Amino acid sequence: MAWGPWEQCELFAKASKEEIQQAEFYLGKYRMMCVFMKDFETEEEEMAQVAIDGEVARRIDQEDLHADKTANAAILRQKQKWVYSQYSVFTKLLFKAYNQILDPEAKEAIRFRFIEGYSRKETILFMRRGDAASTVDRRIDAGIESVANSLKLTGFYDFIKEKF
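The chain above was modelled as a monomer; its predicted structure follows.
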């Protein structure tokens, strides 16, 4: 029986330690990415004008002796659009992986810690209900691992390796 290109595919993906660390990193950036995207969606023209008027467009490369602010501003605007598109992919995949967490307590811990962006200490306070801080930490770790496993199944880590 031939399986074709799916022979090497894992039915139940298990993320490596490195992939779990990457998942935690991207979860930690989730709120910042969402804020940037919201600003970009509502303030794109203003962001472009700031790029034109601001010092950032003077010299993109410090080796430039002279700067073409208009051209540099156009480059910065394209970079903002590219960052927006990457963040859009990342946040959608992260939120989808978050929604796939089966353990309700781990899911709640991930929601407080990363989706809503609270600190570790605030997350522990929100979830305390008689639980020790180490219990909340274990729930966060379990949630991160679940997200990492889901991201592995979607090909997220291969996408990251290709792009970056």
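Residues 31 and 117 are 6 Å apart (CA to CA).
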